[in-house]
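#structure-requests
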Amino acid sequence: MNDIQREIETATVAVRQAMLACQAVQAQLVPRDTLAKQDRSPVTVADFASQAVVCAALQEAFPDDPVVGEESAGALREDQQSVLRDAVVKHVSESMGRDVEASQVLAWIDRGGADESVNRKRQRHWTLDPIDGTKGFLRREQYAVALALIEDGQVVLGVLGCPNLEGGMILVAPRGQGVTTLDPQNENNTSSHPRKPSRSAAGTSPELPTPSSNPPRFCESVESAHSDQSATARIATKLNITTPPLRMDSQVKYAAVALGLAGIYLRMPTSATYREKIWDHAAGLAVVLESGGMVTDATGRPLDFTQGRTLAGNRGIIATGHGVAHGRVVQAVAAEL
């Protein structure tokens, strides 16, 4: 196994800085700070500031590594977006503790626009969702900063920043090394902080709940447009699960499964043509796998990160925590599909 300690440390610091930038924006949030994407999902100053901060750190440490991210700076370059652009630059400068030129901030953001060919060629690259769960961010509920390193089509490191999960935490999951949870407010935390369940010990660590013999709780998206909630309800009935689902935005759902707050995360396909984006799942997958859980698509196949910017070869998501019979969930989903 390659020593990726430098990658772990760089990614952890970058996600911590991005979380603090997001929280600073959120504290000052006003309607004009919202820009609409083409798909009309809300985009905020924090989205751009977060991507700039993370890409700046990756550029300094690993200048040859491409970054496949969600945002581009094209909209910010438009004259009518000067107020938004200035706000992004302000928050990036505050996060970094120094004045940064707008041109540099825009360049950092654009660094997240690597071509999908890096994935198809199995080239080492990072994938980033600067704010996963924008509606959760706007509601001041759950959202995440999600960063992952992919090598040869495999996720080898996931760092998931969850500002509002149980007071805030960063989950760091290098492949084969378990999960470490860090306090985002404590800069002295390192990736060797002691909360680190291995795959064999997950669920028995004093910091993690022991899996219950009771039926596991489902976790699903808040937005019905993101997952077929009626299908999830029928699957829950098949599995004799009567507990109401835990509904959260973003990859915080993966964290909930890894921490034992929920046993099953289902993202049921809402259309035959939609395909998941790699940045929406790479970091979360690492966190669940390194906590002892399992992640597949809705048909039981492993997630394939070699198809470009999307999981083109997969349909839906099933993540299960330690102690949950993944195969039984796959069977119940198959019967529904």
